[in-house]
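Posting this for the archive.
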Amino acid sequence: MPHHIGYQLDSRSTFTRSLRAAFTLTEMLIAIAVLLVVILATSSIFSTAQKVSSLGEANSDILQQANAIERVIRNDFQRITRDGFFAVQCVGVPNSINLAETGRLLDASRPADAEIRSDQLFFFTEGLAASTRALDTYANASSDQVGLDKPAPAQSYFSSVFYSPGVQVKIQPYQDDPTGGDILDIDRERLENTQNEGLYPWSYLPAGQLPFQRWPSAATASSNVPLLPESTENWILCRQSTLLGDDDGSRGTGGSDVGNTGEYYMSGDNAGDPNSAPSVFYNAPDGLRFQPSLINSRVDIAATERDTLRQEVCYFWNDDSDWGFNGSNQGGDDDFFASPTDLVKTNQVLDAMYYGYPRGELRAPSMQRIDTMLTNAVLGPNVSDFRVEWTWGDGVGRDKDVSFNDSGQKLLGGLPGVVLEGTVLVNGGSTPWFGLSDEAIGSAPANAFMSGSNAPENAGGCSGWSHIGDPGRRATSGGGAGGDAVRIGPPVGTELGSGTYFIDDPFGLQTNETLAHIEYGDGAGCDPGQNIRRYGAVFGFNGENAILRAPTGEPYVFDGGEPGLGSRIVGSGNNGRGVSTYTPWPTAVRISFRLHDSEARLEGGRAFEFIIPLPRADS
């Protein structure tokens, strides 16, 4: 019996120990909660690490792209030639420009009254370059054309370069047989002539309003697709390099710019598919325009040479509509002046750029070679707010070899040109940047830095350029905000010391012509974000000679012992006049843009800016 009792006690003890070894429900819930906290914390750490890694990867990708874009632009600037001209155009577009029609802002991350910059650069380079279109074409040495009797790539030592945001056509009309030559191209001429519209990166056109034509026949093609502008994070930056040269083959004339169907290495092949445009510019009803086949990125060769370029873009000495002269002013000899000047038609070149935003595509509409050309124009994807300003350095236009005595004010020390006094500008910094009036970056047209100036346009009800200070007052010696440190004096501008007046030579030339020939503005002084604003500056073929000089190099002296401002005397006797074609080139340009990553990991993208000095004329 005692043995039985011991068995019972031992059994209960074991049972009790067994119960105490398990978790209670409360303990289980607490353990699960702790585990969830640990899992969430670990997940958050991994998520943060993944996000940081993703942002780092996006920044790395953007930095590589920015470096690539900067390297290409700097390489082009190193090859700039002054055998051509240099043009800058600043275009500011309201973020809300399409809001009423589409319900969308161009950039959803910015306010509706923000301004999107869509600037442009156009210049010429020298150095060997090859076509990406005419890769294996023929020149016929057995004919009267100069060339080779075997396949040869099209090459040139003289090219034009056009930097600009690009136009994308994402909804492409159906092409029946693109490999068989059924290529549809945008009909820019019809768009401008019928709707008074250009084609821009921000363009919105409802279905049926985007006209097309067949390439290369230029036959009208019906289509019913809309043009929907991309959001700015999907904009592209284009670089169009056009080889300039002429193989002397015949080319079509009139309304078609598709060239000729000859056998020569620039003109095209026997199938009628041209390799070149007949010129860079042509005369449209409203002035100069780029050949559509160039800005539509179908060809990259133009039959324009160095000597014919001036004929396309410059004023002529004998053109009454250009200069307002008549036969008697020219000494009665009209033919003598039937040659181009050094002065580029500023407004018309800038209009050609504005109406000529190039087309580029990240994905070709077909595998046909003429369609794949559309991708060659793209320098970089996901690029917005492309902005360009320019500047002059101290001493531009300065000439110590001459002295003037005008209205009792003597300039015995020569012509001052551009004077930067070395003090701090009102907007901060020491370098004036010329472009659209923008208080945020301290820029304004060059004319705005001169006393009493509202050029290149009357600012009217706009705020103008008050943010740069009062150019009529010098900055204080201590660098305080007492005025502006910039002086643009003769032969570049009208300002001299603390006064402003014109210097007239005996033939009536006024020094304000220089800046008037360079700059153009349309709303340039208005507040950004309200309307499209434009500002442009074009620098022609005479960037060095502002003073009339004798063949020996000495300043040409008129009666009274005064030298003459100007580049050429037009006319003779009392009908003569000194005419200036002097447009000194910029010292440097400032380029900025915003890059976005394709996966939208960086909200608003990332801004980049760099400054590039232009090569000196004697370099």
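The chain has two domains: 56-168+231-388+592-613, 392-586. Residues 65 and 71 are 10 Å apart (CA to CA).
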